[in-house]
Amino acid sequence: MKRSLLLTAFLALLSGNALANSAFGNVYCDTQPNGFIDEFDTPLEGVGVDLELFSSGALQGSSVTDGNGYYYVKLPAGTDTYEAFLDPATLPADATIVEPVGGTGFFTTNDQFTTPVDFLVDSEVCREPPQDGCWMTGGGVKFEPLVGSDLARHGPKDTIGGVVYPACSSSPSNGGQWNHVAHSVKSHYQAFDINTVRCGNVNDHPPGSESPVTPFNFIEWEGTGRMQGIRGNKSSYDVVHFFGRAEDRNEPGSEGPADGGDIDRYFLHAWVIGPGGIRTTIFCADEDGDCSTVDPATISGGNLQLHYSSCE
User: Fold this and answer.
1) CB 219 within 8 A of CB 135
2) Is the dihedral of CA 9, 12, 31, 84 positive or negative?
3) Which of 62, 111, 179, 203 is most solvent-facing, going by the fewest CB within 10 Å?
């Protein structure tokens, strides 16, 4: 839950039962995008939210989000179920509602405090302008999706590699090409239309990277591509969406202390968009396997290399 929503709920609590028998929450713009609500997402102001009685479809109230993306609708006393819809006329023309799944929120009232429902919207207007401050290469990297577990130590390792936004340009190979061969699920994920989302520095490591020297030590990128089955896996997807993060913590990346603080880290989320704009995760390379949070995992071999050359 975002800080603004927590503050609003707290102030309402001080004023009495203002949130009892009510529908409230926030509408966010998927800034990165990665398909889930996180600290980087921005609020959407001016979005209409309509509440209908689930049993009859009768309109019970409406709200328009404020500068924090917050909406609030007072509902009748008693126990009932309501559906919350975003007004399409107040959303960007290309908008897709990512959360809740299906684009509809549900509230059940019982004269007690109700649970908020947050919406996440994906649109081109949500995107951060691409940052031309870094690009990334990686080759021959072996990656253990669940670092420290028996599966990671003894199971097949994933192989990753390629180039992301070479020389800070979308011209070469449409922004580069990135490959992730997930041997454990017999799949090859390939992104071949890539843009840098942002460059920055992790909080638990000195800023910058070495050899070559850059002012950053992580890069986040997005792209589209495909998934092909390998080694007998006949499944495939022609259009797959990707969000990745690479942390360049050491030279070479796989050498460092046992705690992994100075070993490169990696994250990849792959999803497809189905009917109604519903996103379905098909692969997640993450420390805990949960792509609802970005928790890059320590690599077991190889190097993730940030570059700053040709960026100006």
Assistant:
1) yes
2) positive
3) 203
